[in-house]
Protein: 3-dehydroquinate synthase, chloroplastic
Amino acid sequence: MVAGELGPCSATLDRPVPTVASFSGRPHPLLVHRNKSGCRVSAASQQTRRVRAATVQAQVASAEAPAIPKPGTLPPKIVNVDLGDRSYPIYIGEALLNDAEIVSRHVQGSQILVVTNTTVAPLYLESFVKGLREQGAFKVESVILPDGEEHKSLQVLQQVWDKALESRLDRKATFVALGGGVIGDMTGFAAAAYQRGASFIQVPTTVMAMVDSSVGGKTGVNHPLGKNMIGAFYQPRCVLADMETLKSLPDRELASGISEIVKYGLIFDPELFNWLEENVEKLLNRDSKAMMHAIDRSCAIKADIVALDEREGGVRATLNLGHTFGHAIEAAQGYGVWLHGEAVAAGMVMAADMSFRLGWIEPEICKRTVELLKRAKQPITPPKGMTAEQFRSFMSVDKKVQDGKLRLVLLRGPLGNCTVTGDFDPQILEDTISAFVAHEGISGSSDLPNTQ
Amino acid sequence: MVAGELGPCSATLDRPVPTVASFSGRPHPLLVHRNKSGCRVSAASQQTRRVRAATVQAQVASAEAPAIPKPGTLPPKIVNVDLGDRSYPIYIGEALLNDAEIVSRHVQGSQILVVTNTTVAPLYLESFVKGLREQGAFKVESVILPDGEEHKSLQVLQQVWDKALESRLDRKATFVALGGGVIGDMTGFAAAAYQRGASFIQVPTTVMAMVDSSVGGKTGVNHPLGKNMIGAFYQPRCVLADMETLKSLPDRELASGISEIVKYGLIFDPELFNWLEENVEKLLNRDSKAMMHAIDRSCAIKADIVALDEREGGVRATLNLGHTFGHAIEAAQGYGVWLHGEAVAAGMVMAADMSFRLGWIEPEICKRTVELLKRAKQPITPPKGMTAEQFRSFMSVDKKVQDGKLRLVLLRGPLGNCTVTGDFDPQILEDTISAFVAHEGISGSSDLPNTQ
Ligand SMILES: NC(=O)c1ccc[n+]([C@@H]2O[C@H](COP(=O)([O-])OP(=O)(O)OC[C@H]3O[C@@H](n4cnc5c(N)ncnc54)[C@H](O)[C@@H]3O)[C@@H](O)[C@H]2O)c1
Ligand SMILES: NC(=O)c1ccc[n+]([C@@H]2O[C@H](COP(=O)([O-])OP(=O)(O)OC[C@H]3O[C@@H](n4cnc5c(N)ncnc54)[C@H](O)[C@@H]3O)[C@@H](O)[C@H]2O)c1
Ligand SMILES: [Zn+2]
Ligand SMILES: [Zn+2]
Structure:
């Protein structure tokens, strides 16, 4: 380990390739002028961001949101995603789902199509629709899709468009996604392409969807040759994250969402990582207050990164830490065997391992990552039987490939720092893959993935 | 006829509905502040526009385009579509298809996927691809779709994505549409949704595609319940209209494209309308010089309207003159029986008839429209056997319906003026429909549509 190479500001930019990006807990001077959308031109420090979040919350309490939280509930937090005229709020609270007033505030026309699935519908659809209908003159329709990543396809998406057209929805209609990331991604793309752009609201009901998929406007479906290959960048009008809905979430789904929270800690926020090391069991126990904190921090980090780089020309790619390895794992097994967060967990361990082999991070970070993910009940190695050839083959069709060069998000520097780069010795990637398919893992551990 | 009602500036705005728009040959003062995209805030007069077009052409001759046109060919015209950082040029000329240098100037990455169909491929694909390959280090793939509006579907679109993924194209790849409007619309949407947005170039090979579908970024496919219901607004990086390709176009296809040129005259440009009355036979005879003039004027008009209102919040809707009636005709027969331009021709006659019945235009305009369209070999009544009930039913799922109210583009005032409005006596619409399904037509004519 060549720790001496790493200074405190070791985040690097690979100059020759214009889309390279780097992101660290501290504002990186080179991030200035990197924003193509023209919305913001410098990365706010964590300090500023914390202050901004607080301000938004205060404003809301006095103006936008219900001034008095429902008895016995915590006051909602609000994160603003700052994208010019496409900005929108994320409401994080305890009794939001039946507060139809918030949703209806963001509905433009008079027609609503709620898209959900066979698992979520029996739990929440009826009361949600009832609330909306009571709110006013909405015409509310719903469509219930089959549940599962394997149904995140164009074929199933067709059912949403069929329903919309049968219901004679016009282009001012609002599509509401009520469910996890699969429903959110599909509904967003359905809305984006419906008559070239209907409105869209996210009501995420999994941790994964609350901290990641519902924020930032990436929508789409899978193709047999790749995950999320067909889609659009399309922002919702608001996001409503209700802690109540997490009560019914299976343990394994809940835990897998925690991997993405760990990711925010690793790429950007050492304080969040420390907090998780102290509180991860509270999240597993669905403590609302702890959950709201973790979701608030995660959304705030993602919102800021997305505001800097909506279309993933640069820093947004850092959100893919562990995802290139993770997608290979998902693709090799067939979608839906491991959960997304589980694949990402193993992928982050591989990315950390590779970063360590490159001499870019201290072994401590690898160890803490493995320990935290284990406590979050996540796998820390790829599934047994997965081959090096599968990694090679699935990683090369991944979107991180640009003009033939594989680019990866890797950790570099102290906790909370990462880089997106194609500039590494390919042998080191091979070494990491070999170690993990042999189930040696980062720490020589032979733990099998926790897929229950 | 209550001609006294019509002053020279009779274009009207229906105040209660915010998306109402009106457009006339003269800049309408109310158009100022109507632009939502913020690109431009007032409509340029025809005068200005003519001057601007000329300037662009001069600049091009000296800088961008080949300075010396190929021996025996006319110098290319260039129309600029002004959409901020999504602006792009339309090249209109005689020997552009094999001038791979122009295309390659607008290609970003190194991968190109040419999308075409079984009719166009044998005519132009090989030499086009050869030219591109000779240009440089491009990896050029192609996919050949079945020909016909009935194949403008999600199912067929899938073939484009399959090919792109099998060829391992990344998100920097450029999709090139080589063909008519069907190929252009499908390829544009394929590019828009491929990895959430690949690049896109239009090489239109029909009059329809050159004057209309390749300009302005509307892309999409049909759904069994409606035309172009699934799609995106997605701008190409350039458009290449080569007169040579029109030589192989069947007479009926050529003629149907002229309907859209007539449309530009009716909604905006009385001079173009006059010019058509003098030169329509030259167009039917494929006179390159006349064709380039008509295409140049049409593109310039459409480009200006699109620049004012990219997302069809207002004036862009005027481009749908005759289209609501026309779509009903196409839908009632099943797509692909009549050509789009033919349906629009009959639709424009119906729109003119209705405008006359409302007392908004002089009977002269109806008569001139019918005569010009007849000379262009277009139908001027709906197909025999089509019922009033079919019109009613198909017009109400049309996108012009907003929150339940049917809005139509109608002529109002002197030639070159129109309005988009839902504010008319519904009985007048019924009268027009009745007259046309009884084949009385505007002038009591019993002409049957020219569908050969
Ligand atoms: N758009 C993005 O930026 C982005 C980011 C991350 C992940 N994703 C996508 O999100 C998907 C994964 O999301 P996910 O983890 O939410 O999976 P998911 O949507 O499949 O939901 C997980 C399971 O939980 C069920 N469920 C959802 N809410 C429930 C509730 N409240 N109670 C009980 N059961 C409930 C679902 O029906 C499903 O069976 C993947 O397709 C991934 O590609 C997208
Ligand atoms: N996007 C828009 O703004 C817009 C505007 C108008 C029309 N459109 C769409 O465009 C389509 C109609 O376009 P179109 O009229 O070009 O139809 P098309 O694409 O079907 O082409 C007409 C026929 O001509 C053939 N063809 C094309 N080029 C040829 C050539 N050079 N030589 C010989 N044959 C040739 C085609 O294969 C086809 O058989 C419709 O789907 C319509 O919805 C879109
Ligand atoms: Zn993820
Ligand atoms: Zn048309």
